[in-house]
Design goal:
Distance between the termini: 43 Å
Shape: elongated
Strand order of the largest sheet: 1-15-14-13-12-8-11-10-9-16-17
Number of strands: 17
Helix content: 25-40%
Number of helices: 12
Oligomer: single chain
Structural class: alpha/beta
Bound molecules: nicotinamide-adenine-dinucleotide
């Protein structure tokens, strides 16, 4: 399946700051894949059939030449739901090892809670399966080297599931930055704000949740062995035993984007602050988190997640350079170029009349007046993905293409560790109340 990275649509290019855009109808269409012959057919399984596992699978099955054959999950209701969605022929189990022992499965999607990522990924690769592993790749720092090493030693494809890495908009942003569209990058700011209960992870606990329908010991895995708790099972992100707070859940997307677009391997220093401001429901992770990072390429990154922001969910990036800014919002990237002034300017109003005149005369000798005078106009260029564009589809197309070609995926384990490892520095900084140093080359703390 081929896909066209240039499948974005330039929807505006003007030479006057503040002008509104007449958005043109989308002309480009996402490239469709040709049909794959029967012997090219790939069979995959889903491990962890919750919200994202089902979302991922809905998209993955649209990639030509692939078929879902099995699903593993710890809640029977989700296994039953998988059959409703993808047919009664589906093999379902609570124990993913039953999937891994099957010879007819080439690849797995892993969308379990984070504390299962390393184990499920390494078990899958050791059983000869290629892996699409949801973000964040790690739950603990020790997971990173283990996953990287297992992918290497088993010669398996492992792609991490930050779908934006395959987005045509992020590709366009990368191209624009590299072409010098905003000059030298000096700062990136990114945010992910939400203002709803579901946005703050209070996912619905089904009416039949109990120890008969939910395999609690299998859910717990290596986490502390505690009595059945339905909230922890269905809203696991709220506790560090299973997730890593907003840093692991959302900062990681912002790191994947920043690293993909800038080509950087990661920050060298991190400092973070935040707190639990509103959702005081027993969770042990903050709902407001602010963090700052130094990048060796000479720019700073500032990140924010706020789950009580009083507005609608909003997410986006602003890249600031010496000659302009580049904003990513939704499926659009906008470059606003502010050409640098040709002369330094003057401010003489506090001087005497005589001194004003003399100073301006001297200034104009040095900088002869140009026509037209004044600040140059900003220029604005805007690019948008075609309507209905899905970066998840491209990310799955890329994954299955790697499974076939055996070429490295767009987002391999090293990229995944560099994004998640950087994100979790924020938690460490909060916990220790200090700056945390990170080596983005070796991916080690300190
Ligand atoms: N890429 C994205 O945009 C994106 C979006 C949402 C979630 N995610 C990631 O997807 C993962 C799942 O998140 P979710 O929101 O779908 O959670 P969820 O709770 O809805 O689903 C997790 C499922 O995993 C099952 N599970 C738990 N332990 C298991 C085990 N040992 N074997 C098999 N199944 C097991 C649970 O029963 C549950 O159904 C997380 O890592 C999350 O960060 C990624």
């Amino acid at each position: 399946m081929s896909f066209d990275r240039r499948t974005f649509l330039k929807i505006g290019s003007l030479a006057a700051a503040g002008s509104s855009f007449n958005i043109l109808e989308a002309a480009a269409q996402q490239s469709g894949g040709g049909s794959t012959s029967a012997n090219d057919h790939l069979q995959f399984a889903l491990i962890g059939a919750g919200i994202q596992g089902q979302n991922d699978t809905r998209v993955a099955v649209q990639v030509p030449g692939v078929k879902l054959v099995a699903v593993a999950d710890c809640y029977d209701g989700r296994l039953a739901r998988a059959k409703e969605l993808w047919g009664n022929d589906l093999f379902t189990t609570r124990d993913y090892r039953e999937i891994l022992s099957r010879k007819d499965i080439d690849a797995v999607i892993i969308a379990t809670p984070d504390h299962w990522h390393k184990q499920a990924a390494c078990d899958s690769m050791s059983a000869g399966k290629d892996v699409y592993l949801e973000k964040p790749m790690i739950h603990l720092y020790s997971d990173g080297p283990k996953i990287i090493e297992t992918a290497r030693s088993t010669n398996r494809i492992l792609q991490v599931g930050s779908q934006r890495v395959s987005s045509v908009i992020y590709s366009k942003a990368k191209e624009l930055l590299a072409s010098g569209a905003i000059g030298e990058l000096n700062m990136v700011t990114a945010r992910w704000d939400r203002n709803s209960s579901m946005g703050a992870w209070n996912y619905t606990v089904p009416a039949d949740a109990n120890t008969e329908t939910c395999d609690w010991p299998r859910f717990l895995g290596s986490a502390p062995q505690i009595p059945w708790n339905a909230e922890r099972f269905f809203q696991w992100r709220k506790w560090t035993d299973y997730g890593s707070g907003v840093a692991g859940d959302l900062f990681v997307h912002l790191f994947s984007g920043t690293h993909f677009i800038t080509g950087s391997k990661g920050p060298t220093r991190a400092m973070a602050t935040g707190g639990l401001r509103f959702w005081k429901d027993g969770r042990n992770v903050p709902d407001v988190l602010l963090a700052l990072f130094d990048y060796p390429e000479g720019f700073n990154l500032s990140l924010r997640v706020n789950f009580v922001d009083g507005g609608d969910e909003s997410e986006g990036f602003l890249f600031t350079g010496s000659e302009g800014t580049m904003e990513i919002a939704g499926q659009t990237v906008t470059v606003t170029r502010a050409p640098r002034e040709k002369e330094p300017g003057y401010g003489v109003g506090t001087f005497t009349n005589e001194m004003q005149q003399r100073t301006i005369e001297l200034y104009r000798k040095k900088y002869p007046a140009m026509q037209p005078t004044g600040k140059p106009y900003n220029s604005i260029e805007k690019y948008s993905a075609p309507r209905g564009y899905s970066d998840s589809f491209d990310h799955f197309s890329n994954f299955f293409a790697s499974v076939r070609s055996r070429k490295q995926p767009v987002e391999d384990a090293t990229f995944g560790f560099r994004a998640a490892g950087a994100a979790l520095l924020s938690n460490l900084s909060m916990e220790k109340g200090s700056v945390i140093h990170w080596n983005p080359e070796t991916m080690k703390i300190g």
